Amino acid sequence: MIRHQAAFISTPFLLGELQIIAFVVSLLFIFHAQAQTGDATFPKGDLSAVKNHTGNIWLNELNIGDSTFDPSIAVATYDASAKLDWHIHPGGQVLLITQGTGYYQERGKPIRIVHKGDVIKCAPGIEHWHGAAPNSGFAYIAVTPTKSERRFG
To answer: What are 44-88's pLDDT values in tens digits?
Structure first.
C-alpha cells in the first residue's frame, strides 16, 4: 500500500498541485513576516521638535484641516515610554490605534491601556494625555476637528 501512495504522489498533476500549495504557504509566511516588521501604511513622518512631550515622537500630517475638509488627520508614532503632555482639543479628537500598546488618561479618571485596533474618542474640551507603554512602541491615526486648536496645560 505504501508503494501505491508513492506512485500516486509522483503523478504530474499532484506534483503541480503540491508546488502551488507550497508556493501559497510560502507567500503566507512572507506576508506574515512583513506584518511583524511593523511596515506601516503611512511613513513615520518627522521627529517632533516641539517641547510638549517626553521621548521620541514622529508626526506625519496626512491632512491639514481647511474650509473644505475640516479635520486634521495625522499619524503619530511613539518610541517606547514616549508620551504627550496633558492637553485639550476644544473640538475633540478620535485616535485609531494602529500599532503597539499605550496609555490614555482623562484628568480625574484612571489610566486606560490601549492596543492596536482600539478606538479612543476624546470628548471636546477634556484634558487628557496619551503615550506608549514602557516596553512597546505605539502609533495611531488622529482625527481632530480644526475649528479650534489644541491647547497644552
So the answer is: 899 998 889 999 999 999 998 888 888 999 999 999 999 999 999
Please, what is the angle between helix 2-9 and helix 12-36, to 10°?
70
* CATH code matching the domain that covers 46-152, chosen among 2.60.120.10, 3.90.360.10, 3.30.365.10, 1.10.150.130: 2.60.120.10
With a threshold of 0.90, does the pTM exceed it? no
Cα gap 45→63, rounded to integer Å: 13
Is the sign of the CA dihedral 37, 43, 44, 46 positive or negative? positive
Helix or strand (DSSP H, E) at 83: strand 83-84
Decide: residue 100, CB within 10 A, 0-12 exposed, 13-18 middle, 19+ buried. Answer: buried
User: What is the pairing mode between strands 72-78 and 57-63?
Assistant: antiparallel
Distant-in-sequence, close-in-space partners of 115: CB < 8 Å, separation ≥ 6: 97, 100, 101
Joined together, the cell numbers standing for residue 137 give 512602541
The rounded distance, in Å, linking the Cα atoms of 83 and 90 is 20
**Which three cell numbers, joined as nine digits, stand for 10?**
509522483
How long is the chain? 153
